[in-house]
Amino acid sequence: MPAQQKKIIFCIAGVLSFACALGTAAAIGTQLWVKGTILCKTGALLVNATGQELEKFIGKIHYGLFHGERVRQCGLGGRPFQFSFFPDLLKIIPASIHVSVILFCTVLIIFALVGAGFFMFNAFGSPYETLHGPVGLYLWSFIACSCGCLIMILFSSEVKIHHLSEKIANFKEGSFTFKTHSEQFANSFWIILVCSLVHFLNVLLIRFAGFEFPFSKSKDSGTITGAVDLMY
User: Where mainly located (predicted)?
Assistant: First the structure.
């Protein structure tokens, strides 16, 4: 492939990596990871609410990695409550999983920036033989893509398997019990998915530029060279 086309491909990959780093950083600080509704089960059972009456006992909840808000509604009107994961909810959430999600988000940002820098370096500079060249580009993209996948797996397990929304809804609730009525992942979670797909796309762009995968080099070249040397 001509050098000019390689530069264009590397510039595109570098811009995409930098955009992923910014998108992940923005996603970390938002409350748009999960949104849903919570049902005040105790209040609904007390009055045997059904149909339109049940709507008076359905509140709202949305949260991110650091903070969020729930609207408690038990037939007396919505009462918003702001909460923070650290240190408010540290005792009731799976803290190790939650901290791991934040850690992998940080690693994703770092390696997305590193990858963007090396893509630009390969586009406008003279790449080194090892980590600054094709092997490095594959490595940074693979690590960033893997981190994005781990973030989605860990956070999904925290929300679905460990019932994170219900634990937040019942935080500091003595007389009322809340159940998850509806729940879905919001924009920030899908940003991580898009970032993972972008880093996988970068791997394909590197291959399209003409660089072989590091593990696809033929082992026969060394043996052939050795045989030729023995002839002389």
Answer: membrane
